Amino acid sequence: MKKRLFLIIMLISIITSAAACMLTSAIYYKFYVDDAKEQLKTITELSADPQYWNDNNSIQLSVNNILRTVDYNMRFTIIEKSGAVIYDNWAGNETLENHKDRPEIAEAFKKGYGENTRYSDTVSSDMFYYAVKLNDNEVLRLSREIDSVNSVFAGILPMLAILFLVLLLIGYFAANSFTKGLLKPINEMTKSLDDMLEGSKKTEIRIYDEFQPLSYKIKEQKIRINEYIDELKYERDTIGIITENMKEGFILINKDKNILSINTSGIRMIKNDKFNLQVSKNIIELTRNADILNNIDIAIKENKHLTYDMDTNRNHYRYYFSPVKEQNNLLVTGLLILIEDITIQKNAEIMRSEFSANVSHELKTPLTTMIGFAEMIKEGLITDINSIKKYCGMINNEGLRLISLIEDIMRLSRIEERIDADDNSMVNLKEVGNEVISLLQQKAYDRNVNIKIQADSIFMNANKNYLSELLYNLVDNGIKYNKNNGYVHLNIFKKEDYINIVVKDNGTGISEEHQDRVFERFYRVDKSRSKETGGTGLGLSIVKHIAELYEGIIEIKSKEDEGTEITVKFPLNSI
Asked: How would you class 213 by CB atoms within 10 Å of its CB: exposed for 0-12, middle for 13-18, buried for 19 or more?
């Protein structure tokens, strides 16, 4: 601090001294130039009597007399009104150019006198000119080199240098003395600071009155710091207890991938029971799994929340990678890794997938029976015409419904197992929407439902069949569960960071208690109505699984007897 304060004062001294010298120089220079100009004007005006300049002898005599009175060289020029130079003591026998356009000459003929400062091509030097009118036809002009003024000014430079050094020395000693005097009480207080903080009475502490508020503030801050440290210790211990009792694995690393904290569950799930975090260790010392390390790199570099499922011999784990950022700052400072045991959920999903496949096979058996029964009727084993028509219609309708159910179950199973999930291309959602509307136009017409689409040309990297299935099921549901003269509107647009697909109808609506379950398999709000419309109970479940396949979210708004609005949002950063 002492050195810095000294340098600041010295810098101020140097700047002040330099400014003083420059100001002195500028004032002196202006004074000298003004004085030189006044001398030239005075000489010119005093010698402007025409009788001194009427012939060569008198001109030469006048020039010599004037030059003897000064210690610098001067130029004498007599110019006619036409601009011709009659006499010039510097030109000799050289013929000079016409001077009619010279500002001082023109001004002298007009006002009686004129002046100007400029570079002279004749003598190759900056000159000050002053001209007076001798008579109606002649002007006398005297001039002197500006360089002669600069040479005089150069003479004062040593004096200015001495002045600058004197001021600098004064500033040096003043800065040194002022700095020592200013910091002396601070140094004394620093030496006894420990005694002050501990409140010791054994040592007499001398504190200047000016620093009493500072000493009290230091004591107050020490108390606050101790309280803050105690609070941090309490929070650390509390967090430690919580994380140690978590069944999920918890790992916290910084941006350099050094482990800051890890709980017992995390060590167990990583399968590295010998790991011990006594000193700071890198994540690579905990695990060398390439997929985990790769996800850590992506999450930190791209500031992206990621999930990763890893299967072991007995367990299924899901890793959540969440970047840690400072408040109001997008810079990633670390990464939180949460490991969840999803063995039960995974097994349940496997069972559901197997169930879907088994159900599809089981449903084909009664379907074959019904078709066989229909063939018996066809062969004449049942002869009553009314019975034949009645049961044929029932068998046919039931058979078609079962086939539709089988197809939906198989389709859902393929989506769950992510079959064709990587068969993606850039799909124009507007075109897919128009195709779906065309397919369902006749069905809507038969049910007296008006359907229309309003869509922007938005491209999404996805499986076209999946997106078509999603839009078809949403619009089809709106038609099925509508009323006479109802409507179904399909809107596709971008908003904020999402692609929005909104299907809105004014049909029967869904009561609040059913809204959380309509996306479950085989769930029907009204089973009798579902049977009438030929629904399988899998349409919205298919929509849900396709949305999840592309990290989408589904929102539903509905009121009974007023209609339903279903919104599917796909994040733009996932396409």
From this structure: exposed
> For 236-252, b where at least 16 C-beta lie within 10 A, e where not — what string?
eeeeeeebeeeebbbbb
* Predicted structure pTM score: 0.39
Three-state SS string across 70-87, please? CCCCCEEEEEECCCCEEE
What's the token pair of residue 10? Answer: 């010295």
Q: Cα–Cα distances in Å, from 263 out to 248, 277, 390?
A: 9, 10, 69
Give the separation between CA 552 and CA 568, rounded to whole angstroms.
Answer: 7
CB 144 within 8 A of CB 8: no
Please, what is the angle between helix 385-416 and helix 343-378, to 10°?
Answer: 160
86 and 54 Cβ atoms separated by less than 8 Å: no
Which residues in the chain come in under a pLDDT of 70?
1-2, 5-6, 25, 29, 122-125, 146-157, 160, 181-212, 214-215, 328-329, 351, 354-366, 369, 383, 391, 394, 397-398, 401, 405, 420-421, 521-537, 574-575
Q: What is the DSSP string of 136-193?
A: TTEEEEEEEEHHHHHHHHHTTHHHHHHHHHHHHHHHHHHHHHHHHHHHHHHHHHHHTH
Burial of 207 (0-12, 13-18, 19+ CB in 10 A): middle
Say what the pLDDT of residue 6 is.
65
Token reading at 352: 């559901």
Residue 474 CA to residue 555 CA, distance in Å, equals 13
Region of 320 on the Ramachandran plot (φ > 0 left; ψ -120 to 50 alpha; else beta): beta
In 150-304, DSSP assigns E strands to: 249-254, 258-262, 281-282
Q: What one-letter code names the amino acid at 81? A: K
